[in-house]
Amino acid sequence: MTKSDLIYDYVIVGGGAAGLQLALKMIAHPHFCDMKVAVIDRTPNESISKTWCYWEAGAGRWDHLIDHSWTKGLFYGKAGRMDFALDPYTYKQLNASTFVEYAKDEIIKSPICTWIEDEIKEVKEGSVVEIFGDRKHYRAQHVFDSRIDQAFYADKEHIKVWQHFLGWEIELERPYFDPRSFTMMDFRLRFEESTSFTYVLPISDQHALVEYTFFTPFLVEDGVYEEMLKQYLETYMGDIRYTIKRVEQGVIPMTDYPFAAHHQRAITKIGTAGGWVRPSSGYSFWRSGQYAEQIIQNIVARREISSGVAQNRWRWYDRLFLHILQNNNTSGPELFEAMYRYNDIGLLFRFLHEQTSIHEELKLLSSLPSKPFLNAWMSIWTNRMKR
Predict the structure, then answer these.
(1) What is the pLDDT of residue 1?
(2) pTM for this one?
(3) 10 Å Cβ neighbour count for 205?
């Protein structure tokens, strides 16, 4: 039997946060001990330059890999500075290349899983799933595909707000930062007519990742991010000199697009392509672990593989919020400030993790300015009735 004739039980296309966490859970579960699994990824580890952040209560699965963690946070808005303790949560930063290197080593050591470097061009369902790469042709009983379907980019019906950012990892000539506390959102410096803010993760008193971030229905030129970062550092650090050690940049879709519509009988979309990114926040790493575990449970219980994954009532809240950001983007800072000022941080974190009760959700929503949400609800309902 040649390599191209080998039929895998499962193939995971894409070695990102979703695909790797799914692969690691398969490796660790006895249900898959006699199966053949492959992870096919096109990106060499050396080219990855980004970080994943998440929060959790107590010790976590990836604590041995994280770069830093924080137990305190800051928010800057129109009414000034807000300090908040995260207890019982800890906010954690994980370097993507560190995680990929660890996961890749575990996959290579595993007797059931194979790591393959190839760029997949097409995945086609038949009696088995045919997977066409630049280098080879693969076959599988089931494929988990992290590639975003091109229909998403052509779609004009659904809300599309973009989280886009540029981050500089900087080193200062003298101490300035408090490494115990990170800045979740700093709205003191805003780009014109937009929801835009600075995000600061201090690793030490002289070392931090500083990102300028937009939540907008439009993108900007690279020079805009750089200018806003320079302005922020000059305004709030004064004459302290800094050296840029690393740069990271990204664009994350925040959308109500129905990614689940692209699931097929033997092809399941995962990660961003499967709707795993929380639309109202852009966070995905922790959620990917939860959804990967749900998929494993579904397989073992012989349920529909995507059952319970990225489809719930919290998506309705996300849709309302995204509608506001798309149609009244300048109101974003006011909404975020109310969210942080009038709610316990634990409630916010549980809400973003989709762990709140309806009572808690109504409490949170009632703390926010009502007019934008009522307008968004009426607009969405009217558009639905017209269809």
Answers:
(1) 38
(2) 0.92
(3) 14
